[in-house]
Structure formats: C-alpha cells, structure tokens
Design goal:
Chain lengths: 230, 138
C-alpha cells in the first residue's frame, strides 16, 4: 500500500485487512508523509518502508514491488491506503492469479457492486480511457485506473525492473503488460467511498493528465518489447 | 522607398514547420528511448506546436505583431521562439531546483545511515563477530 498523509484512514484499513486476510504480510510504503502515517501503520501491525523523498504514487508502488522481489514473495496485492478498496474482494482478485490463469488481475469497481458515485466528468474520462485500453489490448477493461490489483512474481518483477510510469497506474501500465505478453484480466471488486482525507487525483489538471496519458500510451506502443513474460 | 514585400514567404513557413516537426520527432524519440520523461516532453510538444502554428497562421498574427511595434514578420517569429525558449528554461530551473533538493535530502539520509551502519559494525566486531569488508570508510 503506497501511502502519503493517510494517518486518519490507514489504521482502520490495516485492521480490516488483518481481520479479513490474516495470513498476508502487509507493507506500507510511506511516501515521505508529513503526518503520523508511518507510526500509525507500524502500530497497526504493518511493515513500513520509509521513502526519504516524495516519489509519488507510481514510485511508492514500484518500491513495494522491489521489496517483494528482494524478499522473495510470489504474489503481491496492491491496494490503496485510504480504505476505498474492500479487503473482502482481495481473495476473489487473487484467485485467477493463484490458479495460474493470468499474471495480473485488475479489480474493477464497475463490474461488481457500485457502492459509490463518481463525479460526471471523471466518469467521462474514465470511460474514455477504458474504451481506449479495450481497443488497444483487444480485451475488455472497464476500470484501467484501478490501483486494486493482484500480480504474480513475473509481473511485479517486470515493474520493479523499471517499466512503471512515474505518476499513477493506469491505462498505460495495462497496455504495457499486454504488449509484453502478460495475461491480464479484470475481476469485479467492491470499492467504498473515501473515509477521510484528500483524493490523490484532485490536484492534477485534467488536460495535463489526459495529454500525459495519451503520450505515455503512444510510447508504450512504440517501445520495443522483450516479450520475456514467459 | 523600395517596393519591399513585408510578409512571410511560404518557403520560410515551410522551413519553420520542418524544423518544428524535426524537433518534435527528436524529442518524442528520446521519450521512447527513455532518455526524457513524458512530463518534460509535454512542454516541448506544446512549444513545437505553438511555433508551427505561429508560422502557419502568420497572417492573423501580423495584426497582433504590428500592435507591439514589430512590422517584420520574421522578427515576430523570432520573438515567439525566444519566449518559448525562456519558458522552457524557467521550467527547467524549477526541475533542477527540485532535483537539487532531492539530492540534498538523499545525501543527508545516506550520511546518517552510514553513520548508523558504522556504529553497528563496531558493535558486532566488539562482540566478536567477523564482518567482511565494507564500502564505507570506518
């Protein structure tokens, strides 16, 4: 779980994970928070990696992948620290990866129960990128920006090695995975409204985000793929 | 007064467009090869587009240029190009400053960590444990 200034939600989030998934190790990557996120996480029983500088969501998630590679983990479940991702859906998300059917399972909030409302313009943007991702990968995706994912070692090692965009997981990471030969699928998951705090998306200019994403997708498509997935 | 044509020759417009497109291609290829990050490329793309449009739409910009006292269209294009370069430079000043700040934080962190490691090594050695050589100066 990448986290920055989530001290109000993270304790509760960790508690919920521990009660639903008692046999999982929890790692919080503290992206140079200015509040008590690290202390709260440790108190709740999670391991914490402290980043000395602010890297952003993508950098923090990649740190988690590197940790998993070094520590020898076989599977990683990526979740948000704000409690939006319901731990009850985690096992359903992990199932196809565990069974070896796919390398990455993306949790989609639009396939399962929609427990909350997304503002109109955000929904328009999400639908656009969902359609674009579907078109470019030949597979149906409804929620490409979802940070609720299950990855096997092959997939998270690929990201740990340096193929992760700097800001957020998104359409470009999914397209990169598919083009590289990884098997990706979407699994319905339950997402809840934010408990507290500020959304990480709220400050990005919409135009900047769209331009950057389109460029990133173009680059992903143009870069040579090693197809080392198998 | 001689009969001078004030305006941008089509061949000049074509030159500017070719230069802009070439620059765009070079920058995009650098992003593709991971020498340049996407977010910095965005500014370069915007600059190329602005320059290209200024050359192509020079007839409409001419009125604007006369208002500020520039009666020679190529001079106006130079002004646009210079302003774009300045904007890019300011942006990179910001980026460089941010990097410097990050480097400072990391260096301090590293210095403090090395200090801690040295202390730990001493404790282990005093306790009788043998340790292999270290890249840190004792």
């Amino acid at each position: 779980m990448p986290a920055r200034n989530e001290e109000e939600s993270i304790g509760h989030t960790i508690d919920r994970i521990r009660e639903t998934l008692p046999h999982f190790s929890i790692l919080v990557v503290n992206d140079d928070s200015t509040d008590g996120t690290a202390a709260t996480s440790r108190a709740a029983g999670a391991s914490v990696v402290q980043l000395p500088c602010r890297l952003g969501y993508g950098g923090a998630v990649q740190t988690g992948f590197k940790y998993a590679v070094d520590a020898g983990y076989d599977y990683v479940i990526q979740m948000d620290a704000d409690g939006q991702h319901d731990p009850a859906s985690a096992l359903a998300l992990l199932a196809p990866v565990l069974a070896g059917q796919v390398d990455v399972a993306i949790g989609s909030r639009f396939r399962g129960e929609l427990a909350y409302y997304v503002p109109f313009w955000r929904r328009v943007g999400m639908r656009f990128f969902a359609r674009l991702t579907t078109a470019l990968t030949g597979q149906s995706f409804s929620d490409p920006t979802s940070g609720y994912q299950a990855l096997n070692r092959s997939a998270f090692s690929f990201f740990a090695r340096g193929n992760y965009p700097s800001d957020f997981p998104d359409a470009d990471t999914i397209i990169a995975l598919v083009l590289e030969g990884f098997r990706v699928t979407e699994v319905p998951v339950r997402m809840l409204p934010r408990l507290k705090g500020v959304s990480m998306h709220s400050n990005l200019g919409a135009l900047y985000y769209v331009s950057k994403m389109m460029l990133s997708i173009l680059m992903v498509a143009l870069r040579p793929q090693s197809r080392r997935a198998r | 007064m001689q009969n001078v044509v004030y305006g941008l020759q089509p061949r000049t417009q074509i030159l500017i467009v070719i230069l802009s497109v070439t620059l765009l291609a070079v920058v995009l290829n650098m992003v593709r090869r991971r020498h340049v990050r996407e977010q910095y490329a965005l500014l370069w793309i915007a600059a190329c587009v602005v320059l290209m449009l200024s050359a192509i739409l020079i007839r409409y910009l001419d009125a604007l240029s006369r208002i500020v006292g520039i009666f020679y269209p190529p001079a106006f294009l130079f002004l646009v190009a210079i302003l774009l370069i300045v904007v890019l430079q300011v942006h990179f000043s910001v980026v460089t400053s941010s990097l410097k700040e990050q480097a400072r934080t990391l260096t301090q962190h590293l210095g403090l960590l090395e200090n801690e490691v040295r202390g730990l090594r001493r404790r282990v050695e005093e306790a009788g444990g043998g340790l292999p050589g270290s890249p840190i100066e004792p």
